[in-house]
Amino acid sequence: MTGMPVRLRQQIEALAEDAGALARDAKALSEAYRTRTGEGRRLAVTEGDALSYACARMPATFAAAQRALELTLPCMPCEIGTVTDCGAGTGALTLAAFSALQPSRMLCLERESAMRGLGERITALEGVPAEWRDFDLVRQVVPPAELVCEGYMLGELATGDRPAAVLKLWAATEKMLLLVEPGTPQGWRNLQEARRLLTDEGAYTAAPCPGETACPLGEGDWCHFSVRVERTRLMKRLKGGEAPYEDEKFAFLALTREKPVPCRARILRHPDVQKGRIALAACTGQGRQTLAVTKKDPLWKRARKAEWGDAL
Length: 312
Known about the structure:
Blueprint: H1 6-13, H2 19-36, H3 47-56, H4 58-72, E1 82-86, H5 92-101, E2 105-110, H6 113-125, E3 130-134, E4 145-151, H7 162-172, E5 173-182, H8 185-199, E6 204-207, E7 225-230, H9 233-239, E8 245-256, E9 266-267, E10 272-274, E11 277-283, E12 288-294, H10 300-305
Helix pairs in contact: 2-3, 2-9, 4-5, 7-8
């Protein structure tokens, strides 16, 4: 179980004066993201939208970004001193990157004033050295940084705007570009399109893929991962359920300027633990394979602790 620091979540939720209005805003915003994303429309525009997003969705997007960084950084062991978060929303990826990297400068680019204003307050609460700017990726040039990242933003762009946006992000990247998207077939396809486009520009794939070969997953399969997030009482109300946690499905792609050290295999699903045997569905670069590990195998102890997304 992972997620944002408890103290920070409590501080964000304390900003909500009317839980009923927050629940209505959260429901409307969820419907907008479900039915209107991918069209380039403005979805979270009011202060109520921003606060409902921060309370209902930000813990999960933070956890996804945190896990993506955890899986990426061993493949690209380098110092990161500057970060540009494009489409920063309320600062989930910025907070995760600050926690993992402790960079000296962070720039948050966000076009929606309500999201930007709340994000600035949230990052200040955590002492993050973040500068926030009004920014539209479709119309402006991304300022350079050693790490350029985006979280759950590419899929919101109109289809025709996406290739140029990806090229802008790469042009600003000095060391590594990290893209984090919903763990849906469409989210994965968007990342595959970005990978093909930027490979032609000289980018190396650092994670999650084990090597530079094209994705070997077959029809009906897609690369995604999962992270479990604890729900607060308010989140349960906003989600309309009593489950104590939720599983956030996400996809990610890390591309680098210098040749990385990719893993040899990546676990693609929850390990199937049986008596005396653990089955690991993994991508090895040559295709999806099921690796059977028994007690006599040297990998047994490691396999017992393995999680979805881990490298082998």
